[in-house]
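Slide 14.
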Amino acid sequence: MEERIRRYSRERTLYEEFAEQVLNILKAIIKQEYPDIKIASYSKRAKEVESLRKKLRKDKYNENSEITDLAGVRIITYSKKDILLIVGIIKRIFDVDIENSVDKTLTLGSDKVGYRGNHYIVSFSEDRVRMLENKKFEGLKCEIQVTSLIAHTWSEITHEKGYKFEGELPEDLERRKNLLAGMLELADLEMDAYVESFDSYISKIEQEIENGCLKYQINSMSLERFMAWKFPGISPQVFRDVDLILNELKLFGLNTIKELNELVRFEYEKEVQKADWRSLDGIIRNILIINDADRYFKKVWNSSMNQMNRKNYELYQKFDVDIDRICKEHNICII
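Slide 15: predicted structure.
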């Protein structure tokens, strides 16, 4: 065993490089194929020498046992449903050692609770090994773990942080452990259900606003979709402070997208396109001021702000806003 430990100590840097290469390939393909997937974290490592020593001391291992997790990569997703998409990439771009790979959900069974994740033992295909930068990784294997953030939390509590227990726990602790595992699994399922419902809601907003249905209450999502529909020529569309503009719309007395849309003059739409505006906050604020400047400066304007951009000042003049009077009343200087 000691000779094997010494050999691995010499080769450990190679396994670190291998894990990093595996992770870089995965990150690039996930970003390219599924840019909307949000990853909680990526990590990679080569097994610590002492961890290998402890593993080899276990009864099920001997001098000739294959250790397939000397290099490791972990991908933690926010949504459980994204795991299947990432698993599909893994199976397509790597050679997978099916015998040593495991889906913890399947091994756990339908009547038990606990950690659920997908662990795949992979190596580079012949085509990938032919690449100059990968020749040194020929024959090496890497364990890729793909799991959700909630499932990872369970793993951290029960294993990584030292709360794993070999043998039988007292009945009350075993029950509490199972209750906790069940709660986390239910939270995982509910998180997926929420994400799916949220995505459906956003898709519905997009479709209905594109069809001219503007019944929605003003919120960050409906406002973003409305602005993309109303001012499609603006790219990229940027909110500097969406919470601030939502509060201004509320103070102005607007509740629905329909009410906001009714304030947008056709001439102003053309002006926005011609003037090359980018800030959605400013575009919306100008809609309010052009419609009713007195209401805006009475109910919405922050009195601590005593400056106005000349470009905006000239825009208000163009739309017959009595901006000189307003600036005088509110001690606003033009810059």
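Speaker note: The chain has 15 helices and eight strands.
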